[in-house]
C-alpha cells in the first residue's frame, strides 16, 4: 500500500477564508479523496498560521488576548472547510503547544548543527508599526501604513545560514526533477538559487506573540520559519519518531505561486540543515483573477470586488457545495492562472452539471421507471460504451496521479456525454419494453455507477446521491477503485429512484 501525505498552506489567521484559500483547499481535498479511493493510506493536513505582530495588533484592537483572538479566527476556517465538505484529517494551529514544541526542537537541531548564528540585522523600521520594511515596500520613502518616515534600525538577530545550501539545493533539484511542478515554477526556484542565496534573519526581539527561541529567550522566531514547520509538527516531529518516519519525506505541499521561495528554497534548506530529507513534492497552483461583472442574486454589488472579498459560504449558498467544488477543480488547469467569474460558474453549472450529468441521471430514472418497472438492468458485455468507459477510467486515474483534476473531470464528462449520445441514438423512450430497452438502460446505469466513482473525489455528495438513486448501498467513495471501476458490475434488479433534479438550471440573467 502506498502513502499519500498532502498539505495546504496554513492560512493566515488574520485573513478571512476566501475563494483563493478555498481553491488550494478544494484541490488538496480532491487529491486526498482520490488517494483514499485507490486505497492509499492518506493524511490530509490544513490549518492556520497564527503568530506575528499583525495578529497581536488585531487582537488588541478587538480587546482580546492574541490566543482568544486566534481561537475565533481559526474557527472561521474550520467552518469554511466544513461548508465545502473538506475531509482534512488534521487541522493544525501554530499557537498550539504541540507546534511550539516541534518548532523549538527543529530549530534547536539546526542551531546545534551550526546553521544558525547571531549577527546584527539592519533594516528600515517603522516605529509605529514596530516592523521592518524593504525599500520597495515604502511609499514615497514612508511607511505604507502610517505614511511617516521610517528609521534605520539595528538589532541583534539570529540568522539561518541559507547561503550554505546553494549547491546542495541545486544538486537536490537535479536529482529530483519532479520536486516542483509545473516545470515553469520549478525553473523560477532554480534561477533564484543560482542567483545566489543570502543568509536570512529568522528571529525578532520586537515581537512577543510568537515562539520563543529556546537558547535565547529575548527572541521569538519570525513567523515564516515557525509556520513552515507545521508540516512536521502534524506528524509528530520531536515526539513521535515512528510517525515522522512513516510520513516524511513523502509529502505533497500544495501552494500558491506567491510562496514558491518559502517552499522550494527555504523549506528544503531548513530540512537539510536539521538533518532531514526535503519534502518530496511541491505542487504550485496559479492565481484566480476576478473577471466578469455579473453576480449572483445574493451579491449586492459588483463594484471593485476582489477575490479576497468573496467568502466561500456566499458561493455555496448561491450555487451549492459540489457545483463550486466542480468549478474550482474543472475551470482552471492546475498550475495556470485562471479567471474566476460568476458567469463562468453559471456556464459550467448549466452546461456540464444541469444539461449533461443532471440530465443523464433524470433520463435514466424516467425511462427505467416507464419501461423497466423501476428496476435496474444489467449492462451488456459488447456495449459500445464499454470501450469509452475503460478508456475514461484510465484517463481519470492518470490525471489525478498527475495533479490534473481538470483533466480527470474532463475525461469523466466524456463518458457522461457518450452515454447521453447513446440514449439519443437508441431513443429507448420510443421503444416497447423488452430486451433492447433493457440493454440500453443497463449500459446507461453502468455509466452512472462508474461516473459516481470517478467524480467522488471532486463531488462527493453528488456521487453519493447518484449511487443511491440507482439503488446501490454504501458510498462510491468506499469501494475499491481497482476492483469496482471496470465495466459490468452494476447488478440487475435494483430499485431506481427518480428524485428531484440534481442541478436545476440557473437562469443566466438571474
Ligand atoms: Zn508604520
Provide a descriptive summary of the structure in words.
The chain is of the alpha/beta class. The protein has a domain at 342-484: Isoleucyl-tRNA Synthetase, Domain 1 (Orthogonal Bundle). Helix content is 47%, strand content 14%. The protein contains 18 helices and 15 strands. The protein has helices spanning 19-37, 53-61, 66-83, 97-112, 166-175, 183-194, 223-228, 230-233, 241-247, 260-273, 312-319, 321-330, 342-371, 384-401, 405-426, 435-455, 460-469, 481-484; strands at residues 3-7, 11-12, 41-49, 90-93, 116-126, 131-133, 151-160, 180-181, 200-201, 203-204, 220-221, 251-256, 281-285, 288-290, 338-340. The strands form 4 sheets. Strands 1, 2, 3, 4, 8, 12 and 13 form a 7-stranded parallel beta sheet that branches. Strands 6-5-7-9 form a 4-stranded antiparallel beta sheet. Strand 5 and strand 6 form a beta hairpin. Helix 6 crosses helix 10. The radius of gyration is 26 Å and the shape is elongated. The structure holds zinc ion (ZN). The site of zinc ion has 6 residues, from loops. Residues 126, 128-129, 143, 145-146 line the site of zinc ion (ZN).
CATH homology group of the domain at 342-484: Isoleucyl-tRNA Synthetase, Domain 1
CATH class of the domain at 342-484: Mainly Alpha
Nearest-integer average pLDDT: 93
How many beta-strand elements?
A: 15
Enumerate the spans where pLDDT stays under 50 for 5 or more consecutive residues. 293-303
Structural class: alpha/beta
User: What's the story with the biggest beta sheet?
Assistant: 7 strands, parallel
Number of helices: 18
Strand content: 5-15%
> From the 3D coordinates, which CATH architecture of the domain at 342-484 would you assign?
Orthogonal Bundle
Instruction: Indicate the overall shape.
Output: elongated
Task: Give the termini separation.
Answer: 49 Å
